[in-house]
Write a structure and sequence with these properties.
The structure is a single chain. This protein is mainly alpha-helical and 77 residues long. Helix content is 51%, strand content 8%. It has a two-stranded antiparallel ribbon. The longest helix is centred in the last third of the chain and has 11 residues. The protein starts with 8 loop residues before the first strand and ends in a 6-residue tail after the last strand.
Length: 77
């Protein structure tokens, strides 16, 4: 990946929230992450995520990290 190139990680936060009948506001309150930061993550604009945040998201959504994110191979698009 070239410097400045877009990453190929897809975030499935919308689907997980919908499947659980939870809003972004509820998730924000439960995990202690601002709605703005969750929106950045949800829209695929985050450059990094802390393991503590990932752990909190997985606990709140009762999911595995692989349920929350997946890698998209740019060669297969």
């Amino acid at each position: 990946m070239e410097n400045g190139a877009e990453h190929q990680i897809e975030v499935h936060l919308d689907k997980l929230l919908a499947d659980r009948g939870m809003t972004l506001t509820q998730l924000s309150e439960e995990v202690g992450v601002t709605i703005v930061n969750l929106s950045i993550l949800k829209n695929g604009r985050a450059k990094a995520i802390r393991f503590s945040t990932l752990t909190a998201l997985c606990e709140a959504l009762d999911c595995q990290p692989g349920d929350l994110m997946s890698w998209r191979d740019g060669e297969r698009d």
